[in-house]
Amino acid sequence: MAHSSLSTVLLLCLAMAASAQLSPTFYQTSCPNALSTIKAAVTAAVNKENRMGASLLRLHFHDCFVQGCDASVLLSSMEQNAFPNVMSLRGFEVIDSIKAKLETMCKQTVSCADILTVAARDSVVALGGPSWTVPLGRRDSTNANEAAANSDLPPPFFDLVNLTQSFGDKGFTVTDMVALSGAHTIGQA
Ligand code: HEM
Ligand SMILES: *[C@@H]1O[C@H](CO)[C@@H](O)[C@H](O)[C@H]1NC(C)=O
């Protein structure tokens, strides 16, 4: 009995350690209004122009597919110049303005990587889609990688074999890929 409850406690600790890095309540004490501030700004931007919701979702995808969700997509003239990004990524000014607001509220607390992630979720919600809980605490990269953006982001001419390989390299199944591609039901192409 004592032994089995100790095992249970140990297992719980291990499970917590495994997910300790990111938490939906990461900013609850350090910046309690962070999430409502992002939501208000995203909702306003989407109300002003519907397509912005799609653009913010795509920005998050292009951030995460190159060296992880680290806001490296925001570092100008590096990843932004990569072929799948140049002249087609939008929404930077929305993220910039949210970051500026959060800096005045809670200096150097909320990462751009988290802002991008939450903005993608809030965009989908603002456009009438489902909601989901976003674990927080991502760190921002200090470098971007144009070469990795060119090699990791799938270009529009990829066939199914290429796409399956590209998403597989990031740990996604074909089912994941098809589900994520549902993002193309919004926005402009
Ligand atoms: C499967 C591989 C993918 C390819 C080859 C691809 C390619 C493209 C291309 C070529 C565009 C049009 C860009 C333009 O006309 O300026 C586009 C738009 C878009 N993509 Fe993808 N994409 C892929 C996956 C994804 C994923 C996984 C997401 C998000 C979960 C996503 C979200 C979007 C959105 C929302 C738009 C519209 C953006 C806007 O209107 O500003 N895409 N994509
Ligand atoms: C794309 O897939 C084809 C087979 O359909 C393969 O020959 C080619 O090397 C792949 N290209 C890339 C860039 O993965």
Automatic annotation (TrEMBL):
Binding site for heme b: 184
Plant heme peroxidase family profile domain span: 21-189
Alphabetical GO biological process terms: hydrogen peroxide catabolic process; response to oxidative stress
Cofactor: heme b; Ca(2+)
Signal peptide: 1-20
Disulfide bond entries: 31-106, 64-69
Keywords: Calcium, Disulfide bond, Glycoprotein, Heme, Hydrogen peroxide, Iron, Metal-binding, Oxidoreductase, Peroxidase, Pyrrolidone carboxylic acid, Signal
Pfam family, one: peroxidase
Residues annotated for substrate binding in this entry: 154
Residues that bind Ca(2+) 2: 185
Domain of life of the source: Eukaryota
Site annotation Transition state stabilizer: residues: 58
UniProt keyword Oxidoreductase present: yes
Entry note: cofactor: Binds 1 heme b (iron(II)-protoporphyrin IX) group per subunit.
UniProt GO molecular function: heme binding; lactoperoxidase activity; metal ion binding
SUPFAM superfamilies with a match to the protein in the record: Heme-dependent peroxidases
Swiss-Prot/TrEMBL catalytic activity: 2 a phenolic donor + H2O2 = 2 a phenolic radical donor + 2 H2O
Residues the record marks as active site: 62 (proton acceptor)
Binding site for Ca(2+) 1: 63, 66, 68, 70, 72, 79
Entry's family note: Belongs to the peroxidase family. Ascorbate peroxidase subfamily.
Identification of the protein by name: Plant heme peroxidase family profile domain-containing protein
